[in-house]
Fold this sequence. Notes:
Blueprint: E1 5-9, H1 10-17, H2 23-32, E2 36-40, E3 43-47, H3 50-53, H4 60-67
Antiparallel strand pairs: 1-3, 2-3
Amino acid sequence: SKPLTLNISHHQITNSLGMEISKEKIIDIFTRLDFKVSDKDSTLEVTVPSYRTTKDISCKADLIEEIG
């Protein structure tokens, strides 16, 4: 199956959580949770681990929840 990749901005994450978190910290959290992350200027391209795509990660809100 094709991996699930979602694009989300640093601003979307911090705005939704209502707190400032550095982009580096966000990337670190995703990486430690086994996500693959590419930093494309103002957008993070996040690839969800295959074992999570059928369970609990399907949209940007799920990514924000992981950081929260």
